Amino acid sequence: MCVFCDILKDKKILIHESEYLFSIYDKYPVSEGHVLIIPKRHIKDYFELNNIEKRHLDIEISEVKKILDVAFHPDGYNIGINNGLAAGQTIFHLHIHLIPRYTGDVDDPRGGVRGVIPSKQKY
Question: Which pLDDT does position 9 carry in this prediction?
Fold first, then answer.
C-alpha cells in the first residue's frame, strides 16, 4: 500500500483538505512549516494530473500558504516537485513540497531551486 494513501485515512494530521487534494506537514522538514500537498487520486507524478486537479492544486497551494503565513510568518517560499527517480522522487505518489523560507536560513539563497544541482545554483 502507498504511504500517502494510508495517511489520508488519518484525518487528524491533515492541515487542509479539498475535494481533490490534502496537505500534511512533512515528516522530515527542511524548514519550519514544510508541507506536502498530495492528490487524493493515486498518481505517480505531476504529468498525470488532469486539468481539474491542476486547477485545484493551485488553489490548495494558495490556501495552505495562507495557513503557513499565519502560523510561521515566513519571508518566502519554494515550491517543488520531484518527478521520477532521476529527479529524486522516492515515493511514487505525486506530492508537492511547499517549503517556507526565512531570511538567513542559508547564507546565500540566490538561485533557489537551481540548487538541486549545486554547481548550477550560482550563475
Answer: 85
